[in-house]
Predict the 3D structure of the following.
Amino acid sequence: VPFCGFFGAKLRSASLMGFFCGCSLCSTFFALSFLGATVALMRYARIVVEHCDPASPNSDKCPSDWHKASCPTLSEKACFTQLHDIDRHAWLVIVTFSLLFLMDCMSFVFGAQLWSLLMKGPVVVQAQPQFATQDVAAQPPQSQYGSV
């Protein structure tokens, strides 16, 4: 996908830029849905950790069959330990996918701007002119006989 964006811009290809924008938009929705799922998992894990400790269960607020729904192949204590550890690692996932979401949004917006320009007709890209230069003496000329 990055190659489509690069070569779409370099070759001024509207179809490559359109594909790049579409993939960026899909990736944006993927990152957003993954963020939502991670936040939901964190909230569920916090409820279980706060109310379902196998050493001292609080059955009033503990979801029924939390152990079978969360990790059916593990023991109740091992499952509780894994859910307790999720909170630490989930923040890394949230930060990573938040950055991914922002970069995908920016690539979609800027790619769509270029795509709309390419759809209007040929895009002429001119190099910035070099600033004007002139010869200037670094130091004033010295007299042949020195200063008087």
Observations:
- The chain has four helices and no strands.
- The chain has a mean pLDDT of 81.
